[in-house]
Write a structure and sequence with these properties.
It contains 2 helices and 12 strands, in the order ββββαββββββββα. The protein is mostly beta strands. Among the domains are: about 50 residues, no CATH class; about 70 residues, no CATH class. The strands form 4 sheets. A 4-stranded antiparallel β-sheet has the order 1-2-3-4, with no helix packed on it.
Length: about 300
Amino acid sequence: MAKTLRTSGDYKIKTGAGYNGGAGSNTIDLDSRYVRIRGDLTVDGDQIVQNVTNTTIEDQFIEVNRNNSTAGTEDSGIIFNGGSSDNAIMFFDADRNEFVMATTPTNLQDGSTTKFEVPDGNLTYRNIRVATTPTDLNHATSKNYVDTQISAIGSMQSFDIVGDDSTGASVTDGQDVQFTGGTNLSANVTSGSTHFVTLSLSQNLTDIHSVTNSSTNADLTLSANSSGSVVIDDVITFNANRSGDPSATSVTKIWAQTPSGGGTGIYFNNTSVSSGAAGEMISKSKATALAIALG
């Protein structure tokens, strides 16, 4: 027979010591197939234990760590009971401002304890399984997907470097690296037994104070294109006298040395001139004196 208990004011049930306003020490046991509360339910206590098989919740969002009023100090999340294995934990690390997936010893903390900070030293970070193929640039992906993409590229021993004018070079181990830009500047670097850099550009070089070759006994070459000439619009200064004559070749070499009979200190040699013996260029005054002396 159905029975309704109606009251116009508050209705309290107390058991044990609680009859006088205390917390009580006995249990209220509602032994029924269904219990329905048709209003809001507030539980003031330390713990709620649900010995049920399934729990369904209509709420769109679930709030944890309610009444937290601090900033960046209280971690919050969910602990999964691991039985005889370590518990699993998914939480937001407030100090680091990041989410964490890990396992932790069963004796660390569980839902029956008060608020705590998850100690990093008790965590074993775990993998997260996601969809193999991402469909958006912001999607996480699997290791298998990344490995497959790298494998499709190859061993990474061959690659292309392309400048902003869409030209470039395919590079393999031990071959050239080329950078080509819209200003026609290119740099070729060859590895292996030969190492050199070649620069070419269509723009004028300005404010250049020094060009130095640091390789021992290596040449520094200025070369014009085709029938063009290397033009110098100002004074050439030899900063030091050469000690000894350079080896003569089939081209003319010019250098500075201690002035002698020619009175200039500018010397030259060429295998086609005096069998390659060094000669000094004669100054105007020396040439005039010789002309007068020789009549």
